[in-house]
């Protein structure tokens, strides 16, 4: 999903969204809409955890860089700690130069289905209103995705914060992805991409262009829709946190016929099939130690 440009006040950190996520970065957006659209506005209180580069999870921040994990008080009681655990597993082997940049983001925000992602201030400008209910035209266009869905009905979105519905994080019976995909891993991959140093973004762009022009993956699937989705689906495949085969472009399918048996097998397959992409994945998530298992899966 596209990064929403934020203007940060000099004295007070006030987030002002300049524009909604672009259609390009939402091309083929895969998230199943929530069954019930959230209410027009719900004031929320938030709980927090903090994760450092070593993967330590804390209730308060001390010195150094930390990624903030937030959840509304309406979320399931285990959602916050599960989200923090996922992030911990993704960053504990990350090079400090990547993590330090990532820590300048707003981190992760978990919301309940009845609230919707617009409960977070970073997405409040996308919130539906009574006058826009059922409409995506004219002055209501900013409340909708390019394909006519309300932003607040999505199960995940990333700008300066990765927002994910709690049902997917805890993998309960209401999970609209049916325990086939860890949306947080996908969305956090977007956040990593947004905040990494520019030289690594350039490497991902070069890898994507090479992969697309040489048909390394299924160009007709979601993973190849944009550079951002290429990286996010590759991240999910690198950690084997998805067993879907309809959106990954084959990134998680060893040999092209079946889902890889482990994250290490998936990494070996990507390394052989798309070495340019693998080079960045391997550095960003393992500091070039690919044999360290991520121990992630669709349900953690």
Report on the structure:
By secondary structure, the chain is α/β, with parallel strands linked by helices. The chain has 2 domains: 188 residues, no CATH class; 89 residues, no CATH class. It is 30% helix and 10% strand. The chain is built from 8 helices and 8 strands; from the N terminus they run E-E-E-E-E-H-H-E-E-E-H-H-H-H-H-H. Strands 4-3-5-6-8-7 form a 6-stranded mixed β-sheet. A two-stranded antiparallel ribbon has the order 1-2. Strand 7 and strand 8 form a beta hairpin. The N terminus is likely disordered. InterPro entries: MetalloPept_cat_dom_sf. GO terms for molecular function: metallopeptidase activity. Keywords: Signal.
Radius of gyration: 18 Å
Q: State the domain count.
A: 2
**Which spans of ≥5 residues are poorly predicted at pLDDT below 50?**
1-33
Round the mean pLDDT to the nearest integer and report it.
89
Strand % is 5-15%
Helix content: 25-40%
Count every beta strand, where a strand is a DSSP E run of 2 or more residues: 8
Helix and strand content put the structural class at: alpha/beta
């Amino acid at each position: 999903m596209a990064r929403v440009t934020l203007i940060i006040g000099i004295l007070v950190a006030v987030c002002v969204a300049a524009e909604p996520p672009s259609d390009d970065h939402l091309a083929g957006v895969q998230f199943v809409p929530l069954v019930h659209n959230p209410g027009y506005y719900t004031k929320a209180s938030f709980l927090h955890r903090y994760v450092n580069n070593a993967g330590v999870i804390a209730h308060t921040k001390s010195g150094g860089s930390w990624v903030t994990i937030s959840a509304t008080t309406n979320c399931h009681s285990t959602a916050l700690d599960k989200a923090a655990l996922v992030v911990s597993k993704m960053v504990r082997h990350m090079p400090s130069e990547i993590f330090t940049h990532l820590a300048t983001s707003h981190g992760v925000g978990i919301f309940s289905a009845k609230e919707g992602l617009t409960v977070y201030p970073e997405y409040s400008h996308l919130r539906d209103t009574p006058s826009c209910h059922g409409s995506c035209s004219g002055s209501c266009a900013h409340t909708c995705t390019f394909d006519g869905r309300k932003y607040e009905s999505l199960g995940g979105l990333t700008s300066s914060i990765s927002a994910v519905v709690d049902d997917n994080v805890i993998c309960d019976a209401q999970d609209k992805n049916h325990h086939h995909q860890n949306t947080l891993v996908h969305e956090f991959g977007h956040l990593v991409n947004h905040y990494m140093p520019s030289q690594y973004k350039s490497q991902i762009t070069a890898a994507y262009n090479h992969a697309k022009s040489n048909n390394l993956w299924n160009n007709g699937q979601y993973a190849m829709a944009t550079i951002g989705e290429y990286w996010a689906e590759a991240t999910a495949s690198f950690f084997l946190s998805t067993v879907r085969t309809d959106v990954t472009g084959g990134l998680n399918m060893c040999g092209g016929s079946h889902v890889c048996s482990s994250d290490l097998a998936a990494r070996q397959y990507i390394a052989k099939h798309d070495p340019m992409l693998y080079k960045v994945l391997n550095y960003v998530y393992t500091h070039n130690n690919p044999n360290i298992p991520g121990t992630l899966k669709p349900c953690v």
